[in-house]
Design brief:
The protein is α/β, with parallel strands linked by helices and about 200 residues long. The protein is built from three helices and eight strands. The strands form two sheets. A five-stranded mixed sheet has the order 5-2-6-7-8, with helices on one face. The chain has a three-stranded mixed sheet with strand order 1-4-3, covered by helices on one side.
Length: about 200
């Protein structure tokens, strides 16, 4: 009986050691955020510097409403990475980065999230419907967005258009994919800022 008891204890200790070993070798999870890299350009900078602009709401596709980074594995197949994730809500990160880009492009501190525009009287509001925002590792990132600019004084759309943007990745890893995603959002911000500059200049 003593031998049997010792064997049970040894088996239990071995199971604990095996579980600890497995836990120690778990794959690392990497977290990513988008980066704002738009720069002020001639003909845009300063045009809306004295007029508040709000951004939102942004409608988001369901397949992107999760922390795992989604990649395109074929025309109709998507893959979600367990070990490469967004550092928070991708939707919130998208809006935050767009606002930072627009602020830099327009050289204005009056570009705000529409949820926080209560202390401002925005001249215009930018609404977006994101249709696609994904890519292939070692391939391209695609950003398709339908967006419009609303005149807050009249409540009417001044402009409704669609941007279809593709950016090539510089490598095969997720760092390159996220960098290309940031560049795609930067180009979208430039297109929006150009239209806002024209509207602000005409006021």
């Amino acid at each position: 009986m003593a031998i049997r008891s010792e064997l049970k204890c040894a088996a239990a200790m071995l199971a604990v050691l095996l579980l600890a070993g497995c836990a120690g070798t778990s794959p690392r999870v990497d977290f990513y955020v988008l980066s704002a890299d738009a720069k002020a350009v001639a003909g845009v900078a300063g045009s809306c510097s004295s007029q508040a602009i709000s951004v939102g709401p942004v409608s988001w596709p369901r397949y992107l409403d999760q922390p795992r980074i989604i990649t395109r594995a074929g025309t109709n197949r998507l893959e979600a990475s367990e070990f490469n994730r967004w550092g928070g809500s991708l939707e919130d990160d998208f809006v935050r980065t767009a606002i930072e880009n627009l602020s830099a492009l327009l050289q204005s501190e009056l570009v705000v999230n529409y949820r926080r525009s209560g202390n401002f009287s925005p001249a215009y509001r930018v609404e977006m419907v994101v249709l696609r925002f994904d890519g292939q590792l070692g391939g391209e990132v695609a950003l398709d967005v339908k967006w419009g600019v609303i005149n807050e004084a009249t409540g009417k759309y001044e402009l409704v258009t669609t941007s279809n943007i593709q950016k090539g990745t510089s490598g095969q890893d997720y760092d390159a994919l996220v960098n290309a995603s940031s560049m795609a959002l930067s180009q979208l911000s430039e297109e929006i800022a150009a239209q806002l500059a024209q509207l602000c200049a005409a006021r």
